Hints:
Elements: H1 6-9, E1 13-15, H2 30-38, E2 42-49, E3 55-57, H3 78-83, E4 85-86, E5 89-93, E6 95-96, H4 97-104, E7 110-114, H5 123-135, E8 140-144, H6 147-156, E9 162-166, H7 184-191, E10 203-207, H8 214-222, E11 227-232, H9 235-244, E12 247-250
Amino acid sequence: MSRLDRAAFIRPIAHRGLHDAARGVVENTGPAFEAAMARGFGIECDLRPANGGWPIVFHDETLDRLVDGAGAVADLLPADLTRLRYRTSPSTPLLSFADLLDLVGGRVPLLVEIKSEWTPPDIDFLGLVTSLAASYRGPLALMSFDPAVIAACAAMAPRIPRGIVSGIYRRGDAEGWWDDRLTTERQERLSHLLESAAAKPDFFAYHVAALPTPVTRYVREVQGLPLFTWTVRNDADWQRSSDWADAPIFEGEPR
Length: 255
């Protein structure tokens, strides 16, 4: 039986917050999260470890795309990261996971994606993530593409709802599916959720363009687990989400 509170989570979830580059609202920032909360949407966000394992709300492995800085997030001390600002929004600081939890304060559900580069799970980082999540008073769930990360979280904090993110892994996919880090055989297993057992997931989040698949129909219709779908951006995506999933993880305006 899923530990995920359907009543709290089954609603549109704003992908990296309700961001809008044209208005200077940057993904995974306080203004994007505030915009989502103002409209009652759930929030999806990303976590990465800074130097020492401190969880930072950031998607990319490096700073270069968004921040007035360069280099790997993991190389920087938390104090270094808090001094950095986003290139298109100089007044906006980077957030730690603790900052995010203080900001949201239980007002809307949080789907927290733990980023992975397919190396062995960083136990110090995951220990901090699960400790902060366990002390949070509000609807929160952890998820990752990497089942080993979620299995480690399950061992550390079994009461926190957890999920697996996936889709159809194809060699050379334009969006980036870790061709340099995963074998074709492993990509196939991940596509069909065949590495999920150790994590004992409470839900799944699957790429909208791939829906429906036999395995997503099985986990939703037979196992009865909630299915989120990402990233919903256009009318066709919204229709597919409505037909084959329980809730969309979306960007832009909901239909």
